[in-house]
């Protein structure tokens, strides 16, 4: 009997030794696993356990997810054909009832769904049969399938059983990994969903750790403590590449890094002050000295140059401290009161360094400026309350279509305080027509409005930079910074 026990222990030990555990060092975490927060930081975690109807790949292409195909059946209805044989993590079958439940929940104002802006033209959903659903819109809405890529489908029966609070810490989806342990601010532990409809993940367990400090993330990678890290600082790329222990992967993104102003209160309610701040910042110097050339200067507008809707007739304001001082004088700017720049650390490429440089440039024209670095949970809480201080750093992804970035400057997004009736009108018109030329014309005008009124300081289009250990295979840098890990394997 003892020999049998010893043999079983040895077998168990051997099995554990062969377990494949992938550990990822993330820069920031959300405060919970609540769906629809409206942040790709959150979505990176959410999409480990959930799937949307339409998926987006690392290059930004849209591909079938829980829906195998879709088509408009009229000016205001899209029909989605659902994937059969998909199981929730508890073994129950995924059906159109779950999609209707999700759509109804997303558009319910009481939910306060952060990504509602992606599909705000949706008016409801109707189950046709267990594997077919019609989604109705308020009018023509060509971007509905793309917008649905950020709306994960949730289980109707699970919400009915546990209520809306439990999924924020114990999500249950159809995705590649099954949630096991969520420790806010520290780690997220998952196991492979061996019955995943795309095929079982190539690792047995997944651990995503929050490691806010970039230097600590790099050290953890080079020591083998983690196998993948995100938001690699540009000044350590050469060190990683020459280590023979890891390599750097990067991809251009459509993310526009901006400093957004609180236009409700002095001093930034005055458009002359906002314009002055724009003249005061030497963006070319920041690109050269801090970003080592790995960024695109935004041309006086929200969109990157390769995004549909970019207005080529607008150019970035030149660095002109004298002009900045003149505008501040005209605005009777109160130089005795400081302005604060809020940012997270490691959320975006060199974010703290960029903010410090901008604060220094504002100080050079006599403005008292400081930088307030906060944890992601604090940032998101204040962001939800629209109390971010004078200025805050944020990155908006257009996903190659102006609709997905401009939505965050509309009142319906609940993420901005700047108001422009013309901008709002053009936004709705642009997402309510199939005429690409008309859409582009609307976006060009919207970019001009933004340039003239400066709701944000438009800074840079930034790349997505990761580093992976030598044992990692099949990991791809993501243009939207979402971690897609089901195909990743370890030697």
Tally of helical runs: 15
Quaternary organization: single chain
Question: Could you name the CATH topology of the largest domain?
Answer: Dipeptide-binding Protein, domain 3
Quote the average pLDDT.
Answer: 94
Give the distance, in angstroms, between the N- and C-terminal Cα atoms.
37 Å
Helix residue percentage: 25-40%
Structurally, how many domains make up the residues?
Answer: 3
Radius of gyration, CA atoms, in whole angstroms? 24 Å
Residue ranges: pLDDT <50 for 5 or more in a row? 1-16
Biggest β-sheet: count, sense, barrel?
7 strands, mixed
Major beta sheet, strand line-up:
8-9-10-1-11-19-12
Assign the CATH architecture of the largest domain: Roll
Which band does the percent of strand residues land in? 15-25%
Shape, per Cα inertia axes: globular
User: What is the CATH level 1 assignment of the largest domain?
Assistant: Alpha Beta
Structural class: alpha+beta
Count of extended strands: 21
Assigned CATH superfamily of the largest domain: Dipeptide-binding Protein, Domain 3
Please explain how this structure is put together.
The protein has helices at residues 2-17, 40-46, 96-107, 144-147, 156-162, 214-222, 237-241, 271-280, 283-289, 321-330, 351-363, 376-384, 402-406, 421-430, 436-453; strands at 21-26, 54-56, 62-64, 67-74, 77-82, 122-129, 132-137, 177-183, 187-192, 205-210, 228-230, 246-251, 255-261, 296-297, 339-344, 369-374, 391-397, 456-461, 464-469, 472-473, 489-490. It is an alpha+beta fold and 491 residues long. It folds into three domains: 50-156, Dipeptide-binding Protein, Domain 1 (Dipeptide-binding Protein, domain 1); 177-251 and 464-490, D-Maltodextrin-Binding Protein, domain 2 (3-Layer(aba) Sandwich); 255-461, Roll (Dipeptide-binding Protein, domain 3). The strands form five sheets. The protein has a seven-stranded mixed sheet with strand order 8-9-10-1-11-19-12. A hairpin with a 2-residue loop joins strand 4 (67-74) and strand 5. Helix 8 (271-280) runs antiparallel to helix 10 and helix 14 packs antiparallel against helix 15. Residues 1-16 have low confidence and may be disordered.
């Amino acid at each position: 009997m003892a020999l049998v026990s010893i043999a079983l222990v040895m077998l168990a030990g051997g099995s554990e030794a062969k377990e494949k555990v992938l550990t990822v060092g993330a820069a920031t975490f959300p405060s919970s696993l609540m769906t629809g927060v409206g942040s790709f930081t959150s979505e990176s975690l959410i999409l480990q356990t959930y799937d949307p109807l339409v998926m987006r790949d690392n290059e930004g292409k849209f591909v079938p997810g829980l829906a195998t195909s879709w088509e408009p059946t009229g000016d205001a209805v899209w029909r989605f054909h659902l994937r059969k044989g998909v199981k929730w993590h508890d073994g129950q079958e995924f059906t159109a009832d779950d999609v209707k439940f999700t759509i109804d929940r997303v558009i319910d104002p009481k939910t306060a769904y952060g990504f509602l802006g992606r599909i705000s033209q949706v008016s409801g959903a109707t189950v046709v049969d267990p594997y077919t659903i019609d989604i109705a819109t308020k009018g023509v809405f060509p971007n509905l399938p793309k917008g649905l890529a950020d709306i994960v489908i949730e289980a109707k029966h699970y919400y009915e059983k546990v209520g809306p609070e439990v999924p924020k810490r114990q999500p249950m989806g159809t995705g590649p990994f099954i949630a096991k342990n969520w420790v806010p601010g520290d780690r997220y532990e998952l196991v492979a969903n061996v019955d995943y409809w795309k095929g079982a993940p190539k690792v047995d367990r997944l651990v995503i750790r929050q490691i806010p400090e970039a230097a600590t993330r790099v050290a953890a990678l080079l020591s083998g403590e983690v196998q993948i890290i995100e938001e690699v600082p540009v000044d350590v790329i050469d060190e990683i590449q020459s280590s023979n222990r890891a390599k750097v992967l990067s991809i251009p993104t459509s993310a526009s890094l901006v400093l957004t102003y609180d236009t409700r209160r002095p001093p930034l309610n005055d458009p002359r002050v906002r314009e002055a701040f724009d003249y005061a910042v030497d963006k070319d110097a920041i690109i050269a000295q801090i970003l080592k050339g790995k960024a695109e200067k935004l041309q006086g507008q929200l969109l990157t140059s390769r995004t549909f809707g970019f207005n080529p007739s607008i150019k970035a304001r030149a660095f002109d401290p004298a002009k900045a001082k003149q505008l501040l004088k005209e605005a009777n700017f109160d130089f005795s009161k400081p302005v604060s720049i809020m940012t997270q650390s490691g959320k975006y490429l060199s974010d703290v360094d960029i903010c410090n440089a901008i604060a220094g440039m504002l100080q050079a024209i006599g403005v008292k400026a400081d930088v307030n670095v906060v944890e992601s949970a604090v940032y998101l809480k204040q962001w939800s309350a629209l109390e971010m201080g004078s200025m805050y750093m944020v990155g908006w992804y257009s996903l190659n279509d102006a609709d997905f970035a401009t939505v965050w400057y509309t009142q319906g997004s609940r993420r901005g305080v700047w108001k422009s009736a013309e901008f709002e009108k053009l936004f709705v018109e642009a997402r309510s027509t199939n005429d690409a030329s008309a859409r582009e014309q609307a976006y060009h005008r919207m970019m001009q409005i933004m340039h003239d009124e400066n709701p944000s300081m438009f800074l840079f289009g930034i790349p997505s930079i990761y580093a992976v250990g030598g044992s990692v295979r099949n990991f791809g840098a993501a243009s939207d910074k979402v971690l897609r890990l089901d195909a990743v394997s370890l030697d």
